[in-house]
Amino acid sequence: MMETTVHVQLANKEQRYDRQLRLWGDHGQCTLELAHVCIIHASATGTELLKNLVLPGVGAFTIVDDKTVTGADVGNNFFLTSDSIGKNRAQAALELIKELNGDVSGSYIDKSVEELLEREPDFFHHFSVVVATQLPERPLLRLAEELWNCQIPLLICRTYGILGYLRLVVPEHAVVESHPDNTLDDLRLDKPFPRLAALLSEGASRLRLADHQEHSHIPWLIIIAEFLRRWRVQHSGKLPSSYKEKDAFRKLIKEGMWKDGTSAHRTEENFEEAIRHAALAVMPTQVPPEVEKLFSDDCCENANANSTNFWICLHALKGFVENEGNGILPVRGSLPDMIAESASYLALQAVYRDKAMEDIAAVRKRVADFLLQMGRPADAISEQEIRLFCKNAAFLRLVRCRSLAVEYDPKTVSRDFLGNEESVSEDLGLYLMLRSVDRFFLQHGRFPGEHVENIEPDVLLLHAEASSLLQEWDLPTSPPQNMLVEFCRCAVSELHPVAAFVGGKFATIIGALTVLCSLCTFIDMKYRSPTMQFHITVCTILCQNYDHSHFCPAKCVICFSFLAETLPSSLLPTPLYKNTVIGAGAQEVIKLLTKQFVPIDNTVLYNAVTQSAVTVRL
Predict the structure, then answer these.
(1) Which of 126, 236, 454, 466 falls 20 to 30 Å from 215 in CA-CA distance?
(2) DSSP assignment, residue 304?
(3) 434-491 per-position pLDDT tens digit
(4) What is the dihedral of CA 417, 173, 48, 577, to 10 degrees?
(5) Cα(422)–Cα(473) distance, rounded to whole angstroms?
(6) Is the CB of residue 331 less than 8 Å from the CB of residue 359?
(7) Which is nearest to 172 in space by CA: 414, 395, 398?
(8) CA distances from 2 to 6, 8, 102 (A)
(9) Could you give the C-alpha distances from 480 to 20, 230, 423, 609, in angstroms and in order?
(10) pLDDT by residue (tens digit) across 14-72?
(11) What is the pLDDT, as a whole number, of residue 9?
(12) Is the pLDDT of residue 567 over 50?
């Protein structure tokens, strides 16, 4: 009976979390459910972010907030009601947020960040991630320093009138499962390992001797391999690389279609597949530049007993590439679908799978040997973790952020972002205003425009703070007057639509947007309510070969589903820009917790007026 109950609970969980399990898998969900997140302030931004952590099933959360609920809070926060006025804000928000998911544990602390840092500085040390919302500069810098020293990720989320701001602060964040778009299949046709070479040779013989029935069911992978062999014989061993050469290679494959006594070729689906896959299947097998860069990192070359699992596995992977791998990464072991007889396909699949297991075993041995040399147990890193590492070896990524103290120091400020122009760009202007209002708060104990009827004096005071910052940055220019007025006029208001974006209410199109080639367009763009499936077509490596009037040949349509929320039409992308789809706030926290997908590096500035955003490194 108890066993039946457990099975029912697991089935219910799989049904509830079905869509997210497709994104980050069972192991990602398990990591999420073991996490404990700290949210500073139950503001509109904080509760929107928290909602999007509780719904996917984060293990536990703690809200730190010593403020009481006011009428203004009730006006922009869906998790506070008029009955909450006068109560502690964290306590009031907690009551409604916990109703979203009974499996999530929640608590609150009725203390300020300053008090905790002063009396209990180690309070923040046991959290998986800390999220600071609507936190002024002075306590934010102290908190950032404390967490930086403990290697705990800090995500700063802020809504200030028309401005949305996200900043990730973490010394180092390694990503094994980066889930890149449009990955190439790991086929090794240019560098086949012995068992694959033997199978391809056997398949080539079958191709030459086959009757029409067998000829039309030989896997496209074998077809490409055979015609690639012929191409290399004719071209001094070189692969087709340019567009012209790849086009000629496709024509060579087409010439190999079955002829039944006439000069005309009979169409064969397996050959059509081979022609479609030819350009990408003959890409040279090599270690990606991003992984090469990781191999040359000091943390990889000088791995030791105190190194993280990521660096130990990378150290072993580098040793494998330099020895057993003959200069290339472990075989991924997966095989795309193709028209073929079951026996032929299964034989190919087995060859790739067995080679992948062989490579994993070699890397695992190197990891175990290294651990023993360092005086640690040989099984300190699990086989499952090593297997996952090898499978994603081509997609390893590392994010290293600059500390907040370095960003705020005029001597080490990011010159790449500031530039040396005589006028302030829109992005720099938003950042300048955000820093300036914090300085205003330090001087006057309130934000510009707050609790005043006439904002003109505050505009002058804010101008002085902004000018002081520009002088520290050695920028010979003046603050933008329109932004000074707007930031005084909004008077630190936390607009809910902006808070919802920053908190991660919906995935949206953000800017750091790159202008596309004029041949690329969005072909399918629509959304449906209430199930909210939002479809956009994204460009791929293939688009350069196709006219804009055709549908995307890769059928690369990404679908996002949201919880009965309305996606504003103003957030739909324009056809002039390449779309970068990421979630805000909560999605960044989930990336950090699951160690899947690459988080921002390191700041996103969102302009609610133009519905655009930019990713910058500060």
Answers:
(1) 236
(2) -
(3) 999 999 999 999 999 888 888 999 999 999 999 999 999 988 888 989 999 989 988 8
(4) 50
(5) 12
(6) yes
(7) 398
(8) 6, 10, 21
(9) 43, 65, 8, 16
(10) 777 877 888 888 888 899 999 999 999 999 999 999 998 998 899 999 999 999 999 88
(11) 54
(12) no
In angstroms, the first-to-last Cα distance of the chain is: 57
**Pairing state between β 129-133 and 36-40:** parallel
197 has pLDDT over 70: yes
The answer to whether 300 and 293 have CB atoms below 8 angstroms apart is no
Lowest mean pLDDT among 7-21, 320-334, 386-400: 7-21
Residue 308: closest CA among 225, 398, 230: 398
52 preceded by a cis bond (ω within 30 of 0): no
Structure tokens of 284?
């040279």
DSSP label at residue 265: B
Four-CA torsion 22, 24, 29, 34, nearest 10 degrees: -170
Six-digit token pair at 210?
């086959």
The length of the chain is: 618
How far apart CA 310 and CA 300 sit, in angstroms, is: 9
Alpha-carbon gap, residue 345 to 336, rounded angstroms: 10
| Predicted pLDDT at 310 | 96
Backbone angles phi, psi at 47, to 5 degrees: -75, -35
Contacts 24+ apart (CB under 8 A), 449-456: 449/487, 449/488, 449/489, 449/490, 449/491, 449/492, 450/491, 450/492, 452/491, 455/485, 455/488, 455/489, 455/491
The pair of structure tokens assigned to 454 is 């006439």
Place of tokens 């029912």: 8
Q: Could you write out the three-class secondary structure of 341-375?
A: CHHHHHHHHHHHHHHHHHHHHHHHHHHHHHHHHCC
**CA distances from residue 173 to 120, 132, 551, 592, 598 in whole angstroms, order as listed:** 26, 18, 38, 8, 9
* Structural tokens at position 605: 């500035």
Do 169 and 204 form a contact (C-beta atoms < 8 A)? no
3-class state of residue 560 by DSSP: strand
**Among 331, 287, 342, residue whose Cα is nearest residue 192:** 331
Two tokens, residue 132: 């600071």
- CB burial of 107-123 (b: ≥16 within 10 Å; e: otherwise) equals ebbeebbeebbeeeeeb
Can you tell me whether residue 101 is helix, strand or coil?
Answer: coil
Q: What mean pLDDT do residues 531-535 have?
A: 30
Confidence of residue 583 (pLDDT cuts 50, 70, 90): very low
Using the Cα atoms of residue 134, residue 135, residue 141 and residue 144 in order, give the sign of their dihedral. Answer: negative
How big is the chain by its Cα radius of gyration, in Å?
28
Token pair in block for residue 514: 């790159």
From the number of C-beta atoms within 10 Å of its C-beta (0-12, 13-18, 19+), residue 153 rates as: buried
Nearest CA among 433, 438, 305 for reference residue 380: 305
C-beta atoms surrounding 500 within 10 Å: 24
- Nearest residue to 61 via CA among 163, 130, 153, 143: 130
Q: In the predicted model, is pLDDT for residue 528 greater than 70? A: no
Q: How many other CB atoms are there within 10 angstroms of residue 406's CB atom? A: 14
Q: Which tokens is 532 given?
A: 């909210």
